[in-house]
Amino acid sequence: MEQLVKSHIRQRLKEGGIVRAYIAGMLATPALVEIIGLHGGFDAIWLDQEHAGITLDAAANAARAARAAGMDSFVRLAATDYATVIRYLEHTAGGILAAAVNTAAQARQIVQWARFAPHGARGIYGANVDSRYGLLPLGEYTRHCGAEVFVGVQIETVEAVENAADIARVGGVDLLFIGPVDLSQSLGVTGEFEHPRCIEAIERVARACADVGQHWGILAPTAAYAKRMVNLGCRMLTIGSDISTIHRGLTATKSMFAEWLNSSDAPTHPDLTSRSKQST
To answer: What's CA 47's distance to the chain center, in Å?
Structure first.
């Protein structure tokens, strides 16, 4: 068992630490994941199947890069079926985050699909990456997955907030993750993450989790927002994404080289200008 991959996410949650995740979606490649790992600071890579449509093969390759860099990975899945859940688990061996979970019954269904008996009813294949391609005895394989696979569910609608207390009590769920973008839309204040309605809804989820000792997380658009959420008891912060990093990097690069990137005012090389005039 010592040679098996341990879940940094579950370990940090048990220790009372903050899990720091980064979203890789449309631009998810092993190289990107490796770069993130080399920079350090992140515990996990969130691979987005819901919106970015990351394929099974792409998720598997990104997950390999994450493991090599010492990070966990999990796949955010759109509302889906049993086969999709187990295939992403078998190929990435990290975990899943189920989107659009609105009721305790839906959360229990995800657990049933994602966990082996006695906590679920997931079928055993035993020849993919999560079983070391069949090298693990089946009993050891199922025990290890039961102890290490991360299962999270997303709270992102008014209905989910109203049912948060029941969802938080579902056994086998490691974390409730609040999606502030869709939650703000559901509350009628799209994009206003700090609107009183949003904060009230988040506080309601936080209380529901605290009452039963459940963990919760959220996507943090700013450092100040992250601090406010941690003060409310947040235990997983999703900080940054591939697309937001590209935008920030390009903005910083354009600012650094502003005089060269403004085509109408960009200075010219005097020698080249002189030679151009001589040649005419």
So the answer is: 6
